[in-house]
Specification:
This protein is an alpha+beta fold and about 290 residues long. The chain contains five helices and nine strands, in the order H-E-E-E-H-E-E-E-E-H-E-H-E-H.
Length: about 290
């Protein structure tokens, strides 16, 4: 009888220990699962060994792809395994664009993505134009015979208004219905406002372009510039291209007026171009009904 009671007590202790052990294991597994799910909500997980965090892509990413948080993983590796220039936090990579294809598990380094000052500066004073175009914008080059109103001192990084000048026919006041015999005149209209200059000829803007302390450093190159590249929205790229052709076809040209630093105020009396607006024509760009014959 006593022997049976002793065995029974031992069995109860074993059952209790086993129950506590299983409960502890379940609690640990639950914590790990919830931690992983919480991190997974942002698409960024932390894994691996070592103590140096690096950002890797968790899927194959083609060149020219804008990176999202879901494409990234932060993992810890040994310091010797971290590549030179690797990002150590995902926030610095999100919304950048790959310049080369990347394979799943590959570390993300500054030379493989655009958008960071470090990546741009690696190209020196002449970075690729695509690195300088903000998301949703377009780079459009137009011919400018002279930088009117700025004395040839317009530089990459400046903000300008674009003026179109064209020649128009003026009807003969004594015979307004006649198709010939009238005179000609010139008109000018501001067609775009507050647009950024990306490049003049082959000179492109850089992250520290506004920090220049020598205003005459590039004057000689700007004096002979004939092509200016501007950053505009897609609809404004159509307007600018139309204005360029309109000037050529009607004895005119484009001119640029430089804005002062911090001056973002629009000229409300001039045409604006909504993104869902109509297709621009030469007369619409100038805001007139006809250019004459």
């Amino acid at each position: 009888m006593i022997k049976g009671m002793t065995l029974s007590n031992k069995g109860s202790k074993l059952t209790l220990i086993l129950g506590l052990t299983l409960g502890l294991i379940a609690a640990v597994l639950t914590f790990v699962y919830l931690s992983g799910a919480d991190n997974g909500s942002s698409g960024i997980l932390s894994s691996g060994g070592g103590d140096t965090p690096v950002v890797v892509v968790n899927v194959d990413v083609p060149a020219g792809t804008r990176i999202t948080a879901e494409m990234l993983t932060v993992k810890n590796v040994e310091a010797s395994e971290a590549l030179l220039g690797v990002f150590n936090n995902a926030e610095g990579v999100v919304n950048q664009v790959t310049v080369v294809p990347m394979v799943a598990g590959e570390q993300v380094i500054v030379s493989k993505v655009t958008g960071s000052d470090t990546a741009i500066q690696e190209f020196g004073a002449n970075p690729p134009l695509a690195l300088l175009v903000d998301a949703g914008m377009r780079a459009v080059s137009v011919k400018v015979s002279s930088l009117i109103g700025a004395g040839g001192n317009i530089r990459p990084g400046d903000f300008v208004d674009v003026i179109l000048i064209v020649e128009v026919s003026v009807a003969d006041p004594n015979n307004p219905n006649a198709t010939t015999g009238g005179s000609t005149d010139q008109i000018a209209a501001t067609i775009l406002q507050n647009v950024k200059v990306l490049a003049i000829d082959t000179e492109k803007t850089s992250p520290d372009a506004s920090a220049s302390t020598n205003p005459d450093a590039d004057k000689s190159s700007n004096d002979v510039a004939t092509t200016v590249t501007l950053a505009v929205t897609p609809i404004l790229s159509e307007v600018l291209a139309m204005a360029d052709v309109c000037g050529e076809n009607h004895g005119g040209r484009l001119a640029l007026a430089v804005r002062g630093i911090g001056d973002n105020n629009p000229t409300t009396t001039r045409t604006t171009w909504p993104e869902n607006g109509s297709i621009p024509s030469c007369t619409e760009v100038l805001g007139i009904s006809s250019l004459g014959s």
